[in-house]
Design goal:
- There is one protein chain.
- The chain is α/β, with parallel strands linked by helices.
- The protein is built from nine helices and nine strands.
- A hairpin with a 2-residue loop joins strand 1 (81-83) and strand 2 (86-88).
- The longest helix is centred in the C-terminal third of the chain and has 29 residues, at 298-326.
- The two termini are 31 Å apart.
């Protein structure tokens, strides 16, 4: 790729702008969320003690110590954990239960292709500004969406963040990847014309907070779009039965995720939180995603093939941590369950599908007021 640069994987500066006025969420029931730890404040008014050993060093020694801290931090981000033959993120260890290894990265790219087919080869559906200046991709994964949007808008500064530093090193010059936790307080130094998230199932505890932060960091007149799944399998012709291996497997995954405080099917809640956080001109469209190439329509047939390939590729990754860490199953028991699921997934007489929910909304206000 011409003009490619190697981005630094560093968080944004901590000098965030004052939060904009954000509508309070309603009191109606929301999915279970993980309890949030109470932060321990630094006592106000107390002086910060100086490390006197540093005062006797010259500049080169001080720089060396700073570099040592930076190297240690960078190493901790990629010091990935191995468990039951799969590799997991190191930063905020345990916050996300799916792997980040090569097998999982292949699944993420298959899912990218599935969503692109669902959206008829569009990266987004929101009617965004034709010349956006700043774009944010939440939970960027392999970075494939961020790379393609950066190519589409070469004048935009694009940021993709994720818990894992698994993105390519050589990317468009207007793209930067960062290691960050989008469930923490955001500290970006400016607002964005467009914020995008996709495939954050089983990843987020408080979708209300996430939507409010999206609202806060969207420019007036800007847009947010969420492309999220609902994994409640069904069929139009009753060939998918309740009590089947796939259905039982899914329900146990949902129960394990909710026990962790994570929302397994965010496609069901994104519209609600888009409205509650203050977005206007909200659109919600549902796209059927067949499981397997059984559909007559060419595009749906191809979607089904990618959906099946991605699920078979990711079946163990979806399951192993939730079943063993949360539900207490042995690895051997999990593999027995997955063998039954794989057999049903490959049955062409079962015309199962899931739904992909695409929701977008606009932040009210005059776009020129943020320039």
């Amino acid at each position: 790729m011409e003009g490619a640069t190697e981005p630094a994987i560093v968080p944004e500066p901590a000098n965030a702008p004052e939060p904009a006025s954000i509508p309070e969420p309603t009191t109606e029931s929301v999915p279970a969320i993980a309890p949030q730890p109470t932060p321990v404040p630094i006592s106000e008014g107390l002086p910060i003690e100086v490390d006197q050993d540093n005062q006797d060093h010259d500049d080169s020694a001080y720089d060396s110590e700073t570099a040592s801290f930076t190297t240690s931090l960078a190493s901790s981000v990629v010091n990935y954990k191995e468990e039951n033959g799969r590799r997991y993120h190191a930063y905020r260890e345990g916050a996300y239960v799916f792997p980040n290894d090569e097998q999982e990265q292949e699944r993420l790219d298959l899912t990218h292709r599935l969503i692109m087919l669902a959206l008829e080869e569009r990266l987004y559906t929101a009617p965004i500004n034709k010349d956006p200046k700043r774009i944010l991709d939440l939970g960027t994964g392999t970075g494939i969406w961020a790379i393609e949007i950066a190519d589409e808008f070469p004048n935009a500064a694009v940021i993709g963040n994720d818990l894992s530093a698994i993105q390519p090193k050589w990317v468009p010059p207007n793209l930067t990847f960062e290691v960050d936790d989008i469930e923490s307080e955001w500290s970006y130094s400016g607002q964005f014309d467009f914020i995008h998230s996709r495939h954050l199932d089983f990843a987020i505890a408080d979708w209300g907070k996430l939507a409010r932060q999206c609202y806060q960091f969207t420019k007036p007149g800007g847009w947010c779009e969420w492309q999220e799944f609902d994994y409640h399998w069904y069929s139009d012709d009753d060939t998918f039965k309740k009590g089947s291996p796939i259905q039982l497997w899914s329900e146990e995954l949902f129960a394990a995720a909710e026990k962790m405080g994570k929302v397994p099917c965010p496609g069901l809640v994104t519209e609600k939180f888009a409205h509650e956080s203050g977005f206007i001109n909200v659109s919600h469209k549902i796209h059927k995603a067949p499981l397997g190439p059984w559909a007559k329509d060419k595009r749906l047939k191809e979607m089904g093939a990618f959906n099946l390939a991605g699920l078979l590729e990711g079946l163990e990754g979806f399951s192993i941590a939730l079943y063993t860490r949360v539900l207490g199953y042995s690895v051997e028991k999990v593999q027995t369950i997955l063998a039954d699921v794989r057999a049903q997934l490959r049955n062409p007489k079962i015309h199962a599908m899931i739904n992909i929910h695409v929701v977008y909304g606009q932040k009210p206000g005059d776009p020129s007021s943020s320039d």
